[in-house]
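Many introductory courses stop at the sequence. We go one step further.
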Amino acid sequence: MLLEIPYSFYGILVAIVVHSAYSKQCRFIPPCTCSTDEYNLDLTPLMSARKDVEFNVSDNIYTYYLHPCNKSPPICKNSSMTACQISKSLNVYGIAKLDGNQIDGDPETGNFSITNSFKDLLITRTSVVYVVCGSEEATFIDIDLNPSTTYKFTLRTRYGCIPTNPSGNGLSVGSILVILFFVFFLIYLVGGVLFLKFLRKAEGIETIPNIEFWKDLPSLVKNLNC
């Protein structure tokens, strides 16, 4: 007779699988912090990195002034803009608005970005700042204007580096789930052996709970992969 595996055991197993898939995804903390279960990638020091001097990068036609952490560049002359595009004739166009940041991607795979948009009359312009790890305070190293109303920048900064020794407050959710999994598995295994040995009078390999299931497990896994 098979011993029934507690539903809580399955629940913890499913929770571990789901948690492992989502634990490293960024959770946005305004104005520009990526928080995961293992570390925080905090870009807010950029707000004071150059005091009142905004970051800028130029192509052959426009100069772009921006700050990825909701600091309004004075040269944009609009407190609701956190980034703007200025032509040689000094026309100003917003490309990011205050409190409009959206963080996406995974810093560990190099696709971490901050996206923002600004609607100017009938045109919505969008800025995308890709953040990569570097040794410097902050340097914009690239610009891509495709499509024409989407402005993609690459920001290299030491604040974009994953902490080598992340500080945490105790165990993470994933660690707790793994511990619970092994505790439940140990209870299931030891309790099952004792039950089968002393109450069912089983001997040898038959004292392992649900032995037929464990024997068939490799073939079940193989069939799932087919």
